[in-house]
Amino acid sequence: MKKILVTGALGQIGTELVPYLRDKYGTDNVIASGRIKESCESVVDTGPFEILDITSRENISSVIKKHGVNTVYHLASLLSATGEENPQALWDVNMNGLIKILETAREYNCSIFFPSSIAVFGPDSPKDKTPQDTVTRPTSIYGISKISGELLCDYYHTKYELDIRGLRYPGVISSAALPGGGTTDYAVHIFYDAIKKGKYTCFLEENSSIDMIYMPDVLEGAVKLMEADPGKLQHRNAFNVSAISVTPKELSAEIKKHIPDFSIDYDVDPVRQAIADSWPNSLDDSAARAEWGWNPRYDLEMMTKDMLSKLKARLKQGD
Questions:
Q1: Nearest to 256 by CA among 298, 200, 172
Q2: Both 144 and 207 in a single domain?
Q3: How far apart are the two ends of the chain, measured CA to CA in Å?
Q4: Are 42 and 110 in contact (CB under 8 A)?
Q5: 87, 194, 209, 225: least CB-packed within 10 angstroms?
Q6: pLDDT (tens digit, 9 = 90+) per residue, 127-180?
Q7: Which of these is catalytic: 20, 73, 142, 200?
Q8: 181 and 259 share a domain?
Q9: Please, are residues 187 and 203 in contact by the beta-carbon 8 Å criterion?
């Protein structure tokens, strides 16, 4: 039986992954964790929760031992824009936290899911249909931490035969929780402002093309990868996944189909724009499709319709 620990469970992905896993594997078999315990109906109030400092191996070990954990979804991370403000803090969380997780997983023979990012690519990477295996050389501290994490995970798999798998996520769009300091955050905030204000000021240029993915595909992809036949996985770690390649201009046009009076203007943040410019326009996810059947369900039209429907209902309840 799977006993799963989710680190960073109160973040954008964790708040939806935890209930998704609990529905699939049973409430008591999924232990959510975070640096602090905040009120969160979908996570803290529905099942086991542990305070966890991922930079403390003793803390990690005690939680894994207490619950008999055999699988870890390691989501705890600082993101790109936040990282540029404090690179040392990002490195401590993203890299020191990861190696503590890996060492503890080695001790208890746990499988690991490690999410990487489109940020591993840099200005020298091919911009369109960026291949699974290509030059990376990221220029943000977040990207540097993620490519280092990929290599570290590969090392632990090769040297210690740990079962480690992961995806390179593009920008994540979700209706349940706001993102926390990433370069693609605009693609979530635009929906809130469209509903509440009828307008949005974007921090990226209108034609900045970045791959995106909608949360239901994030959840299904992570679990499908972790359940895939390991004999068919040539890469195992850091699969490119893609679903929607879109610019702020294109996303706003799709929203206008549902909210005709919606308008967008631009106040470009040079830091986040520079990060976005260093990333690919689109990813080649053929390896994920071939090796474990990746097949996203949501395109731009479906995602926009679903996001607006869910947010309108939730914001109305909040009022």
A1: 200
A2: no
A3: 42
A4: no
A5: 87
A6: 999 999 999 999 999 999 999 999 999 999 999 999 999 999 999 999 887 777
A7: 142
A8: yes
A9: no
